[in-house]
């Protein structure tokens, strides 16, 4: 469309220019007719030469007409001495110039008056008829060339676009293939993507995602391994005890009773592990929901301490509670109660006899804070980042003695995170620990 419009403008400009040139020659011829007194002497060489040259150059016909409408000069020598009656010629004698352009017939007609230089009367007319075929041929040729050029250019652009798009799309195809590998479980594949800023950004995000997936997979495998190990140990122990009983004859009642007590202890241990695993699943922040209610946190903490005081009393551990202000907050009473109970119970379990546990409760305009400090065995500084991992135990032998499964702090952390809260630990080995919990007063969605 653009090339057609462009060439059409070229055609119009070319015809306009041709008309302007012919009008200029018509004026020159009219002046020569007057200056040479052509109507008195028709054989003047200068004028005839001008007429013939213009007619030959522009491939047209020129008529010189006197005031009686008689053709006194015809470059075609066909109408000499004949009378011409034409609307355009008559209008010319009335002082009007005329130009007629016929695009379908591809010709131009121009009439111009011949004025007496002294009286300015119109004493004749010049009529010119010229072909514009060459202009149209040139126009059609240029139009054809433009169309051919556009077609060739379009084909080249299409080919280049296909090649370039292939180069551009290839990294994305590779990335898609990599993602498909991940979809079927292969997270070991690694691919480097360079060349485009956007693709590098996607690649970096992909790498970050892969790192997270690998960590998740490692955590999952470690979790499965830990579960298998934790369940295998008591089951193996029960199997050994049961086999010892079945392989012996006439087992004394005292030994039988002792072995059965041990088997019951191992069954209880397995039961604790299973219950803690179920709790971990229920409190997982990604799949669980909270059941919120408005809770008096002061009374809430006092109830937890009331249930734990008998345990602390068995080892003469002082359980101190300090509350600085009344606090009402939106919490899931069951899940948060489990978390706080675990913290205080751990402070009792991993403490020295005749020690102390101090629980403090405070709040500001946005959060409430629970601190649990103890005089217990403490946690080595290099291990403090790992204590919230599932099945992780600082002292495995001591944990087994106290009945720990290594899931308590993982459950606690998940429950606190579900409340959009945070938990931190400050501890020094042999000098006790301090756990600080921060929970929003109003649940933040």
Estimated helix fraction: 40-55%
In the CATH hierarchy, what is the class of the largest domain?
Answer: Alpha Beta
Distance between the termini: 58 Å
Instruction: Classify the secondary structure makeup into a structural class.
Output: alpha+beta
Q: Count of DSSP helices?
A: 10
**How would you spell out the order of helices and strands?**
HHEEHEEEHHHEHEEHEEHHEE
Oligomer: single chain
Largest sheet: 5 strands, antiparallel
Beta-strand percent range: 15-25%
Polypeptide structure, described:
The chain is of the alpha+beta class. The protein folds into 3 domains: 2-131, PAS domain (Beta-Lactamase, 2-Layer Sandwich); 197-283, Helix Hairpins (Orthogonal Bundle); 293-440, Heat Shock Protein 90 (2-Layer Sandwich), CATH 3.30.565. It contains 10 helices and 12 strands. The chain has helices at residues 2-35, 45-57, 87-93, 133-183, 197-247, 253-283, 297-314, 333-349, 396-402, 408-418; strands at residues 60-66, 71-74, 98-102, 107-115, 122-131, 293-296, 318-323, 328-331, 356-363, 367-374, 422-428, 432-440. Helix 1 (2-35) packs antiparallel against helix 2 (45-57), helix 1 (2-35) packs antiparallel against helix 4 (133-183) and helix 5 (197-247) runs antiparallel to helix 6 (253-283).
């Amino acid at each position: 469309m653009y090339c057609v419009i462009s060439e059409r403008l070229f055609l119009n400009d070319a015809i306009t220019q041709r008309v302007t040139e012919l009008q200029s020659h018509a004026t020159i011829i009219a002046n020569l007719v007057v200056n040479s007194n052509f109507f008195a002497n028709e054989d003047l060489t200068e004028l005839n030469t001008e007429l013939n040259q213009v007619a030959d150059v522009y491939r047209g016909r020129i008529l010189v007409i006197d005031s009686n409408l008689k053709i006194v000069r015809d470059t075609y020598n066909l109408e000499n001495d004949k009378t011409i009656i034409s609307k355009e010629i008559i209008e010319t004698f009335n002082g009007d110039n005329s130009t007629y352009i016929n695009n379908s017939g591809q010709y131009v007609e121009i009439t111009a008056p011949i004025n007496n230089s002294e009286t300015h009367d119109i004493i004749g007319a010049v009529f010119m008829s010229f072909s514009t075929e060459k202009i149209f041929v040139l126009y059609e040729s240029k139009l054809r060339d433009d169309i051919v050029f556009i077609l060739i250019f379009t084909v080249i652009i299409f080919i280049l676009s296909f090649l370039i798009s292939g180069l551009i799309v290839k990294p994305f195809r590779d990335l898609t293939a990599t993602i498909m590998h991940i979809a079927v479980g292969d997270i070991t594949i690694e691919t480097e993507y360079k060349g485009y800023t956007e693709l590098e950004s996607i690649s970096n995000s992909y790498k970050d995602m892969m790192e997270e997936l690998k960590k998740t997979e490692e955590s999952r495998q470690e979790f499965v391994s830990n579960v298998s190990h934790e369940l295998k140990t008591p089951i193996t122990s029960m199997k050994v005890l049961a086999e010892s009983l079945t392989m012996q004859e006439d087992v004394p009642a005292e030994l039988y009773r002792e072995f059965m007590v041990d088997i019951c202890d191992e069954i209880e241990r397995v039961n604790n592990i299973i219950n803690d695993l179920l709790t971990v699943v229920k409190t997982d922040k990604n799949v669980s929901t909270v059941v919120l209610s408005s809770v008096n946190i002061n009374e809430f903490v006092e109830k937890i301490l009331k249930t734990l005081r008998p345990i602390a009393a068995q080892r003469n551990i002082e359980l101190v509670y300090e509350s600085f202000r009344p606090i009402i907050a939106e919490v899931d009473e069951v899940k948060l109660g489990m978390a706080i109970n675990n913290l205080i119970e751990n402070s009792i379990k991993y403490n020295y006899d005749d020690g102390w546990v101090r629980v403090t409760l405070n709040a500001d305009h946005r959060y409430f804070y629970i601190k649990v400090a103890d005089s217990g065995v403490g946690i080595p500084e290099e291990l403090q980042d790992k204590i919230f991992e599932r099945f992780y135990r600082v002292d495995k032998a001591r944990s087994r003695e106290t009945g720990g499964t290594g899931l308590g702090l993982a459950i606690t952390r998940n429950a606190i995170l579900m409340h959009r809260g945070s938990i931190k630990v400050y501890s020094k080995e042999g000098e006790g620990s301090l756990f600080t919990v921060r929970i929003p007063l109003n649940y933040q969605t």
